[in-house]
Design goal:
With 149 residues, the chain is an all-alpha fold. It has 8 helices and no strands. The chain crosses the membrane at residues 85-101.
């Protein structure tokens, strides 16, 4: 079989996968981080719908693999895990939202970090959208406590 002219024979990009944080754990660790870091009060009001959608997708995927989600990890377990592990997402949102909500110009990039600077120089900065940050934190904290209580 001859090689086409438009197929590249040499690598053009390199991707580094960091497996340092890879572990077997509840999916709620990742879901809570995603939901609390990206969701506003509007999305959090529809949280039960989002969780059901996630579980339906999860169930369908397990079914395609020949397993039964209700036997392996029932929806009730997912909700129980949310009460148990969502604190991770809450804490990560509190730490990460300033960087998520900031303008690119407001934060020092890793590339621009000088040898005499610390990592804390990257995360210690003032964001312009303080009202948005406080509103989002309030929404996330309220959702967390409403859900676990």
């Amino acid at each position: 079989m001859s090689e086409s002219n438009d197929i590249k024979t040499s690598p053009t990009k390199v991707a580094i996968l960091d497996w340092q944080m890879s572990t077997l754990r509840s999916p709620v660790i990742d879901i809570s981080y995603l939901v609390y870091s990206t969701g506003s009060g509007v999305e959090l009001e529809k949280f039960d719908e989002l969780l059901e959608f996630y579980y339906d997708s999860f169930s369908n995927f397990l079914k395609e693999l020949g397993s039964n989600a209700e036997e392996i990890f029932p929806y009730s377990s997912l909700k129980e895990h949310w009460r148990k592990y969502a604190l991770f997402g809450l804490l990560m949102a509190i730490l990460g939202l300033p960087m998520i909500l900031c303008d690119k110009e407001e934060v020092v990039s890793f590339e621009d970090l000088q040898e005499d600077q610390n990592f804390s120089d990257i995360i210690n900065f003032e964001i312009k959208e303080k009202d948005l940050y406080y509103r989002r934190i309030k929404d996330v904290v309220r959702h967390y406590f409403d859900y676990i209580l």
